[in-house]
Specification:
By secondary structure, the protein is an alpha/beta fold. It is 56% helix and 12% strand. Bound molecules: zinc ion. It comes from Blautia obeum.
Length: 254
Amino acid sequence: MKRRKAGIGIFVIVLIITAVRVKSMDSHRISGRILAENIAGPGMLRLVEQSMQARARKTSVTEIAVKERKHPQAALTFDDGPDIRYTPLLLDGLKERNVRVSFFLLGEKVEQYPELVERMQKEGHLVGNHTYHHVQLNKLNETKAREEILKTNNLIYETTGVYPLYLRPPFGAWKKNLELCVEMLPVFWTIDTLDWKVQNTEKIVRTVQEQIEDGAIILMHDEYDTSVEAALQVVDELKNQEYELVTVDQLILP
Ligand SMILES: [Zn+2]
């Protein structure tokens, strides 16, 4: 009976420790989210530009961040999806390797393939916005540009239950005043693989190898077999080089 009581006692202590841990993890996650919500909106573009410039100059802030981390980090990002043929193959390969990436989706394709978007979310990937029709935002008036973004956000929210905070503007074309009316953080890239143009696995992998550095954001498209093959090879190679593969929010809000 005593042993049983002691057993119950230990079980209760373990439960309490677990509960405290889960709670502290939660508050960490929530504070990151609040931070993202606070910096999104007015002035966010400047913040991102500053952090990118700081990274390029390798200022002390970047050096401190790098010193605190054990491994260099890189983020794989995929635009223009989801693609009914190739996105599932990419998701399978990433799952096998236990790696999370960031997807910037077109609203019209979210509407077509909601089950793929749901899978992305379920498997821990970051789901971001790439406008509804792949439009060049700086060529549209503010109402139209806002519509392109918000319609896609709403579709993603309806599908995943999570309202997107990150947006990749097609062609990297961001409209300066847009930050005042959409509360999102634009995410650009540091390595353009030109995968859609070369459609050659070896060349895509080589481009990444030549340009990889800590904090890299790699731009790819999950609508070609060569891109999916290249992405999975890049994952294996970066892992061999001790890189930690993260989603873009982890790079922007470390
Ligand atoms: Zn695109």
